[in-house]
Amino acid sequence: MLKTILAVYKKKADTMSCCIEIPENVSAECIQNLQELVSSVRNCIVHKARRTHSNIELEMRLGNVTPNGTFCSDIGELSWMRIMSAMDASSDWTKKHEPLEIIDFFYTHDIEGKQENIRTSRFIKENKIVCEHIVKKNEKKISLEITGIPNLLNNIRVAFNTETVIDKEFLPDITSTSCVRIKHRKSYEWNNWRYDLTKVWSAPTYAAATRMRDDVKKHTTYEIEMELQRSDVYFGKVSHTDEYIAISLLLKVIGLLPKHINII
Fold first, then answer.
1. Which of 18, 145, 252, 258 is deepest in the core (most CB within 10 A)?
2. 78 Cβ partners below 8 Å, 6+ apart?
3. pTM for the complete prediction?
């Protein structure tokens, strides 16, 4: 299933400093839509350069669009396991992370007179419990259709988001959650990109999410996400034009999937 991820990308590594080849199985409209999103990210980086508390996020998720038009990021256990096995077998990663449990608590709270949707993430880092409080806002997203593998997935969602860190002094000690997600994640890094393979259990409360986690086979969803690290540095490189970044995004997706796909 995997070519591997880095193989397609490395074939073009010598020429990418000045140009990048458009894959034959990608439509011109797809490239155009991605370039427009990338341009929006670039503009945001320029305008928010002095706002150090706000992080600009560019991410891609594999998934399926359901008949009612909803995007579902669950690709199924079999596909997820195959991709993870291939990624584990590769020695080309800049870094491989140990599996990590992250618990996301979603709730609303009034901050300076405005109701905000907040995500508090809790995990253990260097033997210490870490809590991060984030307001995440979607700035723009597009869906790209994948054909040729209907039994695996049919869509890629590319999203440009901003994440603002909220100090805990502005947050309540106790509150009701709208959703809790328990995530078991394994991550791989290659240069500026991080690949997250995550098993997820979701429910309105922590207790309910825990029950789902303990009944693994019944309630688990399997997700794959690719996220750009240090977007300001990546976009700041002279050779990284909007076209370059758009095609680079697509190459990473193509590297995960069978050869006979098309992206439109």
1. 252
2. none
3. 0.90
